[in-house]
Amino acid sequence: MTVTEIIAEQGRAGLSLPSPINMxxxxxxxxxxxxxxxxxxxxxxxxxxxxxxxWSISWPTATESAPGTTNTARGLxxxxxxxxxxxxxxxxxxxxxxxxxYVYWGACTKSADELTAHAVKLALGTFPxxxxxxxxxxxxxxxxxxxxxxxNCQNWVLAFFDKVVADGLVAQxxxxxxxxxxxxAHDLPGT
Length: 191
Known about the structure:
The protein is of the alpha+beta class.
């Protein structure tokens, strides 16, 4: 991989659009222990190799539907909302270069969708809310790099994992196992 440089403000510098809508007002991250996962999203028609799969650190924040509705099914595949720590692709040609680029907007709660339901979910462990907040703090310390055609969300997650291990939140052996499983997810060829 070629060396690339850090992009200012984790990719947010000079952007004209606001951050994605955060649903944490409807699905707050409660002060309870919660399982945290590495999500490896299912391939799309434009996803020929495992390096093209999107990775996200996520945990469900709601297992029931919005107030006034019912979600009778329980479990991860029926979670109503997930909190994500991830970089996202941003591509607005009228904004300053580089475009497209990756951006870290901060942790964001989103309503569950089919993509999340079909993602491979690899458990990092169960964390109290204080440790999940620490994960969010470490994500703010993880740089986003200028696009170079090779660096992607997986590199960002790996750099984030280095910080998580250094902080003592997850053992290196656990991270190694999770990454190994992620690389086999969805049965795609390598790079």
